[in-house]
Design goal:
The chain has 247 residues and is α/β, with parallel strands linked by helices. It is built from 8 helices and 9 strands. Strand 4, helix 4 and strand 5 form a beta-alpha-beta unit. The structure holds NADP nicotinamide-adenine-dinucleotide phosphate.
Length: 247
C-alpha cells in the first residue's frame, strides 16, 4: 500500500470495518473513517493523528450519505473504498417492523449504492472498492428475511458497479463472510436473556462451519485489503466462510 493512498471506509467504528481501518493504517495508508460513534472516531484520531480522518455520518440519512464523498474529497484524492457498515435484525416473519425493514435496506444496500455510484467516477483510476455481503445472501434463513435480501441486492450492485468502473480501471468486488466474531453477532437476540444463551448460540454457529470455528474480524480484513489491491480482479465475490458454503 502506497503511504500516500487515502481509502474511504464505512463501518469504521466496529467489527470488520474497524479491523480494515487498523490493517490499512498498519500498512501506512490514510483512512477516511465513517461512522456514527463520535467517541470511537475521536479515539482513532488520537491514536493515528497523521493518518486518520474521521467523518461522522449516518447512513440512514440520505442528506448525510450525499455529503460523504464530497467531504472526503476535500482532503485530497481517494484511492479506494471499503463498504463495511451493516446492520442485521433477526425477526420472525409477521413481526418485522417498518423501521428495521427500512434500516437494513438503507444501511446495507441504498447507502452503498449511492456511495458506489458516486465513487465509480471519482476514485482515482486504478482504485478498488470492496463491499461486504454475507453468506446469508445465498443461504437465507427465515429470520434473515430482510437482511438476506439486502445483501443479495448488494451483490448485484457490485456487478453493475464493476461494469461501470472497468473503463476507468476502477475495480469493484465483494467479500462474502460466514459468521464472524463481532459485536453484531454477539448482540443478544430475542429470547436470549443471559450471556450463556449467547455463548450457546456462538458454539452452535461455530459447529456449522466445516473448519469448526467462526471467523475473526482481522482475517476478513486481511482478505478485504488484499482484494482492494488485486489489480486484475473485478466483479468478483471472495467467499471467506470457514467452508460454510460446503455445508
Ligand atoms: N459479523 C458477521 O458474522 C458478518 C457476517 C457476514 C457479513 N457481515 C457484514 O460485515 C459488515 C460488518 O459487520 P460487523 O459484524 O463488523 O458489525 P458491527 O461490529 O455491528 O459493525 C457495524 C458497523 O456499521 C456501522 N453502522 C451501522 N448502522 C449505521 C448507520 N445507520 N450509519 C452509519 N454507520 C452504521 C456501525 O457504525 P456506528 O455504530 O458508529 O454508526 C459499525 O461501524 C456488515 O456489512 C455486516 O453485514 C458480518
Amino acid at each position: 500500500m502506497n503511504p500516500r493512498e487515502r481509502i474511504l471506509v464505512t463501518g469504521a467504528t466496529s467489527g470488520i470495518g474497524l479491523a480494515v481501518v487498523e490493517t490499512l493504517l498498519g500498512r501506512g495508508a490514510r483512512v477516511v473513517a465513517v461512522g456514527r460513534r463520535t467517541e470511537t472516531l475521536a479515539e482513532l484520531t488520537v491514536r493515528y493523528p497523521d493518518q486518520l480522518e474521521p467523518l461522522r455520518a449516518s447512513l440512514t440519512d440520505g442528506a448525510e450519505v450525499r455529503f460523504i464523498v464530497p467531504r472526503a474529497l476535500e482532503g485530497g484524492p481517494l484511492h479506494g473504498f471499503v463498504s463495511a457498515a451493516g446492520v442485521a435484525h433477526h425477526e420472525g416473519l409477521g413481526s418485522i417492523s417498518e423501521r428495521t425493514l427500512r434500516e437494513q435496506f438503507e444501511v446495507n444496500t441504498f447507502a452503498p449504492m449511492r456511495l458506489g455510484e458516486e465513487l465509480v467516477t471519482k476514485l482515482e483510476p486504478g482504485s478498488g472498492m470492496v463491499f461486504i455481503a454475507s453468506t446469508l445472501a445465498h443461504k437465507p434463513i427465515a429470520t434473515s428475511y430482510v437482511y438476506s435480501a439486502s445483501k443479495a441486492a448488494l451483490l448485484s450492485v457490485v456487478r453493475s458497479l464493476a461494469s461501470a468502473g472497468a473503463p476507468r480501471n476502477v475495480r469493484v468486488n465483494a467479500v462474502t463472510p460466514g459468521v464472524v466474531d463481532t459485536p453484531m453477532i454477539r448482540a443478544p437476540r430475542e429470547g436470549e436473556g443471559t450471556t450463556e444463551a449467547v455463548a450457546k448460540r456462538m458454539r452452535s454457529l461455530a459447529a456449522i462451519h466445516p473448519l469448526g470455528r467462526i471467523g475473526n474480524a482481522e482475517e476478513v480484513a486481511r482478505a478485504i485489503v488484499q482484494l482492494l489491491e488485486t489489480p486484475w480482479t473485478t466483479g468478483a465475490e471472495l467467499v471467506i466462510d470457514g467452508g460454510l458454503a460446503l455445508a
